[in-house]
Automatic annotation (TrEMBL):
<keyword id="KW-0418">Kinase</keyword>
<feature type="modified residue" description="Phosphocysteine; by EIIA">
    <location>
        <position position="115"/>
    </location>
</feature>
<keyword id="KW-0762">Sugar transport</keyword>
<dbReference type="GO" id="GO:0009401">
    <property type="term" value="P:phosphoenolpyruvate-dependent sugar phosphotransferase system"/>
</dbReference>
<dbReference type="InterPro" id="IPR013012">
    <property type="entry name" value="PTS_EIIB_3"/>
</dbReference>
<keyword id="KW-0598">Phosphotransferase system</keyword>
<protein>
    <recommendedName>
        <fullName>PTS EIIB type-3 domain-containing protein</fullName>
    </recommendedName>
</protein>
<dbReference type="InterPro" id="IPR003501">
    <property type="entry name" value="PTS_EIIB_2/3"/>
</dbReference>
<keyword id="KW-0597">Phosphoprotein</keyword>
<dbReference type="GO" id="GO:0016301">
    <property type="term" value="F:kinase activity"/>
</dbReference>
<keyword id="KW-0813">Transport</keyword>
<feature type="domain" description="PTS EIIB type-3">
    <location>
        <begin position="108"/>
        <end position="210"/>
    </location>
</feature>
<keyword id="KW-0808">Transferase</keyword>
<dbReference type="Pfam" id="PF02302">
    <property type="entry name" value="PTS_IIB"/>
</dbReference>
<dbReference type="InterPro" id="IPR036095">
    <property type="entry name" value="PTS_EIIB-like_sf"/>
</dbReference>
<dbReference type="InterPro" id="IPR051819">
    <property type="entry name" value="PTS_sugar-specific_EIIB"/>
</dbReference>
<dbReference type="GO" id="GO:0008982">
    <property type="term" value="F:protein-N(PI)-phosphohistidine-sugar phosphotransferase activity"/>
</dbReference>
Amino acid sequence: MFNEFYLSVYNQLFFRWILSYQKQYQKDYIHCFVETDNEKHQIICFESVKVKGKITIWYNHIIEEEISRLSDDKLIFYLHFTMTDLAQCTHLFKEFYQTMVQYTQQKEWKIALCCTGGLSTSVFIEEMQQVCELENIHFQLVSLSLDQLYKHYQDYDALYLAPQIAHLEPDILAFTKHQIPVYRIDATLFATKNYRAIIQTIQKNIQVQS
C-alpha cells in the first residue's frame, strides 16, 4: 500500500516534469501537448516536421514511449516499462526525446541512381530502400534515366552512375559544372547486388561531403 501511494505520486510528478520543459521543446522545433489526462492514463504528444511521439502513463504505472515517422506512419521507436522510480523514468524519457531530436534534425539525403533508361536502377533501388528501412538510414533514393539526369540533376544531393554509363562521368561532370558530386557505382557491387556495401559507400561519401 505504501509503495502504491508513492508510485501514484511518481505518476503525477513524471507527468508534470515532462511538461515543465516546454521551452526546450520549442527551441528544438518540437511541439508538445497533452492529449489525454484522466484516471486511467495520461498521454503527452510530441510533433515535429518529420516525426511524432507519444508518452503514455498508465494508472498501473506502466509507461509507453513511441515515435513514428510522419511520412508513412512507420513506428521507429517503441519502449514500455514498469515505473520503479523517477530517476529511471527521466533517464528513459531522455532517450526517447533524443531520438525525437535526432530524427527531426537529421537531413534526408536525396540520392539518384542513374542508368541509360532508368530500368536497371529502378529495380535496384527497391531493394536498396528496403535495406535503408531496416537499418533506419535516411536516404531518399530515386532512379533516373540519362535524359532525366540532365534535366533534373539539381534536385539531388549526389548522382551515382550505374556501370553501363560510368564512362560518361567526365561528360556529366562538365554538364553539371561540378555543382553536385557524381560517383561511379562499383561494377562488382552492382552486378552482385551488394546493396549494403553500396549504401556504406554512399554513407562514406556523405561524410566527406559534410
